[in-house]
Design brief:
two-stranded antiparallel sheet, globular, binds zinc ion, OB fold (Dihydrolipoamide Acetyltransferase, E2P)
Length: about 250
């Protein structure tokens, strides 16, 4: 941290640091079985960012998250980039499944989830919740995007009403609206729109994200990695095989 800060005052040393960071990022990329998480730093700042952060207008240097953290960079407060799991010990109230390592999505430690009331419903994979006593990182009212699942849109500005969008939306509405749910989180707390990214559990301890996929109201959304990705993929395969919901071919549009 101090080393880097001092180096920042001298142009040559600073550029050398950036070069080494860049080198190590480039060296890691093709090697591992697992893609390293890449974040972005600037020439003058001491924080690291997501790719789309407004702080990156002047300069952006991709580095691996691990290198950024080991070089003393702190996460940006605006774009809330990913953190190394080992750097976020004991955040009270926030249950991050990666650290707890449950085998499957319904193996979470239920007593540690955040309790919330579902006060609004947006579509199959997005709800509004009220959190009676929010932990530090959460607000009383939040929009929650369910992790790892994508349902057909009900009202999309360009695509309009997609096949099965209403069924998916009704499924979530009938199961969740007006009920108490419990939230668990993965490595990323919010998306770029500021929505909470969560696994939503109903009182019967079922993971609603998974239920949507199991019943064929949506597919596993694997563009961004999450802890139960393989499990969700398998559920989708099963739902396709059984021709459930949107995999049945018949749309009631
Ligand atoms: Zn940022």
């Amino acid at each position: 941290m101090h080393l880097l800060r001092n180096a920042g005052n001298s142009g040559a040393a600073w550029r050398r640091n950036l070069f080494f960071l860049w080198l190590s990022a480039a060296a890691i990329l093709p090697a591992g079985g697992e893609d390293p998480v890449v974040v972005y730093i600037t020439n003058s700042g001491r924080r690291y960012h997501r790719e789309d952060c407004s702080s990156l207008r002047r300069s952006r240097v991709p580095v691996t998250l691990r290198d950024a953290v080991q070089s003393g960079y702190e996460p940006c407060l605006i774009c809330d980039p990913p953190v190394l799991i080992s750097r976020a010990p004991g955040r009270p109230g926030i249950y991050r499944v990666n650290r707890e390592n449950p085998i499957n999505c319904e193996g979470v430690e239920f007593a540690r989830l955040v309790r919330a009331e579902v006060v609004g419903h947006i579509d199959g994979d997005t709800i509004r919740v009220q959190i009676p006593s929010p932990p530090e990182e959460l607000r009383t009212l939040e929009t929650v995007r369910l992790i790892g699942v994508d349902t057909p849109e009900t009202v999309h500005p360009r695509r309009g009403l997609e096949a099965f969008g209403k069924e998916a939306s009704d499924f979530t509405k009938s199961r969740l609206l007006g009920t108490t749910v419990y939230l668990a989180f993965d490595w990323e707390l919010r998306d770029r729109y500021g929505r909470l990214l969560a696994y939503v559990y109903t009182q019967d301890r079922r993971c609603h994200n998974a239920q949507i996929i199991r019943q064929g109201f949506g597919h596993a959304y694997t563009r961004y990695s999450f802890h139960f990705m393989e499990e969700f993929r398998r559920m989708e395969q099963e739902a396709r095989k059984e021709k459930r919901g949107l995999w049945g071919g018949a749309s009631s549009n």
